[in-house]
Specification:
mainly alpha, globular, 4 strands
């Protein structure tokens, strides 16, 4: 196996697919087509020479090799995200990815203005916005393994 052939995108796609148990859900979250996600997974398994996912089961499950690989990829992606955050800390205009969740109660009140402010202030950033109940947001934090959480007090004023 040539390690230089492993792509970061392939590792991210594997991580998402393993976390969701679904190529479709991984594609939706990554903003990719299902065929692109499948291609990344097949390429990764071919490069490693092992099956990582049981493709015949729904939801997809990890093989024994996939369990070991997932644990290590999870840690590696956390470290990469932390490194990116440390490098761009204080310079949010350079941030590349931001996932944020709003509790349903705040979505219509602050969501639109917050989206405009973030988009204007972080022009190079890809945003993923989730509106859910507070318990669902907490579940998402556990499943997706977000590395940073911003907590905003309910009483805020947004101005243009």
């Amino acid at each position: 196996m040539n390690m230089s052939q492993l792509s970061l995108k392939g590792l991210e796609v594997f991580h998402l697919t393993a976390g969701h148990g679904s190529v479709q859900a991984a594609a939706r979250e990554a903003g990719l087509s299902i065929s692109t996600v499948s291609h990344h997974l097949r390429s990764l398994e071919a490069q490693l020479g092992v099956a990582l996912l049981n493709h015949a089961r729904r939801p997809m499950t990890l093989t024994p090799a996939g369990i070991v690989f997932f644990k290590n990829v999870d840690e590696a992606l956390k470290l990469i995200r932390m490194a990116q955050a440390e490098v761009t800390l204080g310079n949010l205009t350079e941030a590349r990815h931001l996932k944020f969740g709003l509790i349903e109660d705040f979505d219509s009140d602050i969501g639109p203005e917050l989206a405009v402010l973030l988009a204007n202030g972080m022009p190079k950033c890809d945003f993923a916005h989730y509106t859910r109940s507070s318990s669902e947001i907490l579940d998402m934090l556990r499943v997706i393994h977000w590395t940073s959480v911003l907590r905003v007090a309910p009483i805020i004023t947004l101005t243009s």
